[in-house]
Amino acid sequence: MLIKKITKVENMIDTHIHSDTRPYEDFERMALSLDGVITLAHDPLKPYSMDVLRAHFDRLIEGEIERGKKNGLKVFVCLGIHPRMIPPDVNYSMLKEYLKNKHVVGVGEIGLEKSSKEEIEVFERQLLIAQGLNLPAVVHTPRRNKKEVTKTILEIIDSLSLKKDMERRIVIDHCNKETVSMIYDRGMYIGLTVQPGKLTPGEVVEIVKEYEGDRSLLNSDSSSAPSDILAVPRTVLKMKMEEIEEEIIKKVSYINAKVLFNLKV
Q: What is the pLDDT of residues 5-29, one digit of tens each?
């Protein structure tokens, strides 16, 4: 029996997790295979006020980076107001100050869940803030009505007349096979999330083969929902077994993220 030799891919980054939802032991497991992770703001508590978000932001910057360091894991941070975490007293000035922190590499995750008027307004303001601070933006798309909501997101981006270099620094995350082409044709980054109910490693292989890893980012979206913190290395292994070129694998699992977020890894 002929056994294919699987060469090791040296560098990997998980571009979208919620590390504050994961137990301490997971950090060591991630550090064994990943060079770094990006943890993003999400919806940990009911947003009674902006103070809830401030506590969440403080935990990500102060607590999660330190938890990673104790286990040999480099943790980077994106901050933003998730569409399921909009408080009644949104304070954009406070958000801007947090985004200027040296550990913050992007704005996120932001985006739409139900496409309500409030969600759209908060999304628009944060995209403009990202452009003003010269930061990339990570955009959430929901599990339900993904294609329709993605279309709305692209229409909103069009309406803002963002600078071309800003458009090219937007990640539309949690893409599926139905929405990938929409994002690729616009020149934005494609977030490929390997998580139950989103993409499987096999589906990622199909997408990577078609688009050759251009502007694609690999992530697990590890959170309190069913997740696999080793989804990135498992998917990289699957790509190796399917004989995808190592240069393409490295783009999807490491280089694209390092360049977009200007990561020091």
A: 555 557 999 999 999 999 999 999 9
Which of 231, 236, 237 minimizes the C-alpha distance to 255? Answer: 236
> Under a CB-based contact definition with an 8 Å cutoff, are residues 201 and 232 in contact?
no
Which domains does the chain carry?
13-261 (3.20.20.140)
Residue 96 corresponds to which amino acid?
Answer: K
Q: Are 218 and 232 in contact (CB under 8 A)?
A: yes
Query: Tokens representing 110?
Result: 């932001």
Comparing C-alpha atoms, which of 239, 175, 232 is closest to residue 202?
Answer: 239
Torsion of CA 247, 248, 254, 258, to 10 degrees: 90
Q: What is the 8-class DSSP label of residue 48?
A: S
Residue owning tokens 């999400």: 42
Q: What is the pLDDT of residues 95-105, one digit of tens each?
A: 999 999 999 99
The C-alpha angle 9, 200, 41, rounded to 5 degrees, equals 85
Other Cβ atoms closer than 10 A to 151: 14
Contact present, 65 and 103 (Cβ < 8 Å):
yes
